[in-house]
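Archive entry: two folds, one per protein. Generate the first.
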Amino acid sequence: MSGPSDIFNNEKKYKIFEDVPYGDHELQKIDIVIPRKAQKQADLYVRIHGGAWIGGDKSDVTESLEPFVKKRNMIGANFNYRLLKDGNYDVDCSCIMDDIHAAMKKTVEICKKEGYELKKAVLEGESAGAHVALMYAYKFKDESPVDIVLVYSDCGPTDMNDDAYFNPPIEISRKDMLMLKSLLIGKELTYESMKEPENVDMLKTVSPVTYVTKDVPPTILNSCGKDVLVPVSNAVTLEKALEENGVDHYYDCFDNSKHCRRDKADRKKVKVFEKKFKQMTDKYVCGKDR
C-alpha cells in the first residue's frame, strides 16, 4: 500500500492503480488515483519524491496528492525512478529524465484506457524531487505528453555550479557533494576538476536554471533560511532568471525553517505562500477554459 493516505484505500471514490510498471527496472513503477468524479477531460497532478537522488520512494509523498485529488478532482500520480548509486555511473540525470518522460506517457496511456483525456499537468517535488520536477518541466516542456502549466519546487537544487554548496551553512561533506554532482553528470569529479570549463558546462546541463526561457511553465518556489542541504542562493538564482525572462512565478524564503520544513516562526509567511499557491493553481489548473 502506498502510505497512510486514504485515497488508495477507497475504491468507491477512486479508481486505483498501484505499482504499475512503465519499464523493466524494479524502480520504474507508478501509482495513479482517479477520482470517480473526475471530468473526462481531466487535469493531472504529479508528485515526485526526494531523497538526494539516491533514496526515497513514491510512497513517501502519497499524502501530498490529497488536496488535488480530493478537493479538485484531479487525477493524481506518484512516480518512482531509477536512483543514482555511488560508484556506478550507469544511471545519471538523463536516465532520471527518461524515466519521468516514460512515466508521464504511461500515465496518459492508463488514463486514456479508462476514458480520460489529460489536459493540463502540475508537477511538484521537494528537494531532489523538486530538481527533477523543474528539470522535466523546463527541458521537456515541448515533449511532455501533457501540457505542464505549473511547477512547484520546495527547496529544490537549481544550480549545480553554485559555490555555496561547499560553504556554511551547508553541512554536506565535500566528498558527498562531489559524489552527487559526479553521479548526476555521469563523470567523476574532484574539487579542482569541477571548475574546468568542460565540467562547468556538464553541470549546467543538470541545472534547471540553464533551461529557463520565456516559455517555461509558471513556477512556484521556496527556500528555507536554515537549510543545510540546498543553498538559499539556488532559489534566488532561479527566481532572478524567471524574472528576467518574464515568467509568471512566486518565490519566498522561510527564514527560520530548515530544509523542506516549516518552522512556527514562519507561520505568517507560510500562510501567505499557501494563499498564493492556491491562487496560481486556480489560475492555471482550474480556469474558465477547463
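Generate the second and append.
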Amino acid sequence: MYKLDKEEKKVEYLELIYDLVFVYMVGRNNALLSHFEGGFVSAEAFVSFILCTLAIIQIWNFTTFYINMFGRNGIRDHVFLLVNMYLMYFVGESTRHDWHAYQAQYHIAWALILANIGLQYVIEMRNHKADVWNRDIAKRMAITLFLEAAIVLSSAFVPAKTGPVMSFVAIFTGIILTMTGRHRSPGGQIDFMHLTERAMLYVVFTFGEMIIVISAYFTGDGSFDPDVIYFSLMCFLIVAGLFVSYEIIYDHLIDREMDDSGMLYMIIHIFILFALSCITVSLEFMREPEVAVFPKVVFITGAIIGYYAFLLCTSRYVRKTCRLDAKFILGQTALAAVFAALMVVFRENMKVNIFITVAYVWCIVGIIYSSKKRISIEEKAQLP
C-alpha cells in the first residue's frame, strides 16, 4: 500500500463531539425492538432495526474514513460535521415504530448526510492535483457517496414496502463500491492506529447504552431482595465480561502500528457493534413479560455468540505471536455449541440461564487473558 511518513493522527475533540449524536442514535435504534406481536418482536420492527442500525454505522464509517485520510480539524471540517449532526436529529426523530410514516424525512436527511460527505471529497480533490493516487481515491469515494445518496433519496418517494428494499440496496452498494475503490486505488493514506481508536470509541458509547439499560435490574422497593441482588449482579457481570474481552484485545493483542488499510477491520466492527446493540436489547427483553421465553433465550444466545465470533475475527490484526489456529477455532466453536445447548435446555429457569451466560462470558475472558499473558512472556523472553 502506498504510504508516506507522517505524524500519527490523533483523535480530535471535534470527532468526540460528533460522536455524541451517535449515542442518541443507538438508543433510538434499540427502541425499535420494543414492539411485540404474540410474544415475539414483529418482523417489521426487526427489519427496521437492522436497516437503521446499519445505516447509522455506515454514516459513521464514511465520516471516520474521510477524517482519517484528509481531515485537518479546520473550519471546513467543523462546518460539515456540524451540518451532519443537525441532519442526524431528523434521522433520529424518524426512527420510530411507525417508521414508514416518516420514510420521506428519514431518507431525505440520510441522503443529504451522504451528499455532504461526498462534497468534502470533491473539495479535497483540489488539494491533490499533483497527487494522482489521493485524487483518484477522493474521486472514487465522491462517486460512491453521491450514487448511494441518489438511491437513498429515491427511497423517500417509493411505496412503503419498497422503501426498505431500496435502502438495503443503497447500504450494500456503498459497502461494495467502497471496498472496490480501495482495492483499485492505493491512494488515501490510512492511519490504522487512528481507525482502531475511533472504532474503540464507538464500542465504548455502545456499551454506554447497555449500562443504561441494565440499570433496570437494580430496581427494587428498597428492601433486601435476594432476587434483585442476584439478577443485577449476574447482569452486571455479563456486561463487564463483554467489555473486558474487548479491552484486552484492543489494549494488548491488536497490533495498532501495522500497515493496513483498515477496511476489513472497520467492516468487522460493523458486526461487532450490531451484535452489541442486539445484546443490549436482549438484556432489556429478559425483564419484559410480553416477550416469550424461547425468543428471549435465542436472541441473547445468538447475540453473545455473534459478538465473540466477530471479535475473534479481529485476530487478523493481532500480533503474530497470537494468531488463531484450527485447534483454537474448533475449541471456541465447541464451547459456543455447549453454551447454546445449555441455554435452550434451561430456558424456563432464568436463574440458571443467566448464570450459564455469565460462566460462558467469563470463560472467554479467561481464554483471551491467557493469550495476553503468553504474549507478555514471549516478549520479555525476546528482550536482550
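Annotation attached to the second fold: The beta strands are 36-37, 40-41. The chain has two domains: 13-188, 193-377.
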